[in-house]
Specification:
By secondary structure, the protein is mainly β. The protein has one domain: Porin (Beta Barrel). Helix content is 8%, strand content 56%. Strands 1-2-3-4-5-6-7-10 form an 8-stranded antiparallel β-barrel. Strand 3 and strand 4 form a beta hairpin. The two termini are 38 Å apart.
Length: 162
């Protein structure tokens, strides 16, 4: 039993896992507010995410731009990610107050074919004009994969030169 477990762990450590199966994805962010999320991969493990959200309770509008690092957990379809960025909010009852600051993000995501589901924790720290200096939120985001990553061909003929 120990040998089998050792072999499985060794195999898992030796295979090359990439972090994402998509290049561009977008969809709905569902939390206390409702929003739109768009992710664009810019490097092997890096994405830029933009979130535009609106409140149910009032006319508030928010925009967040974040840089995220994606790392695979079990397979390249199941990832953990974290990152940081900036946020800006428009408060509907006062056109002169725009709370803004820094946002952090951490979460997990799963991608299957053209669909991506993620859950995240997104705390925001407002340094300018905010009534609430700290605003934590969690959300479930459902995205459609617009541009998939092309499949890489694996050559098992190791005895032939490339």
């Amino acid at each position: 039993m120990v040998r089998i477990l050792f072999c499985l762990i060794s195999y898992a450590l030796l295979i090359d896992l990439d972090a994402q199966k998509y290049i561009t994805a977008g969809g709905a962010r569902l939390c206390e507010d409702i929003g739109i999320s768009i992710q664009q991969r810019i490097a092997k493990h890096l994405t830029i995410e933009g979130v535009l959200n609106s409140s149910y309770r009032n006319d508030d509008l928010g925009l967040k731009l974040m840089l995220e690092q994606h790392n695979p957990l079990i397979t390249r379809r199941f990832n953990v990610y974290y990152g940081a960025g900036v946020h800006w909010n428009y408060i509907g009852d006062s056109a002169r107050i725009y709370p803004s600051g820094i946002s952090l993000i951490g979460g997990i995501e799963f991608t299957s074919d053209r669909f991506n589901v993620s859950w995240d924790f997104l705390p925001s720290f407002s340094f300018w004009y905010g009534k609430e200096p700290f605003n934590p939120s969690t959300a479930l985001t459902l995205r459609y994969v617009f541009i998939k990553e092309k499949k890489k061909k694996k050559h098992l003929k190791f005895w032939k030169k490339k």
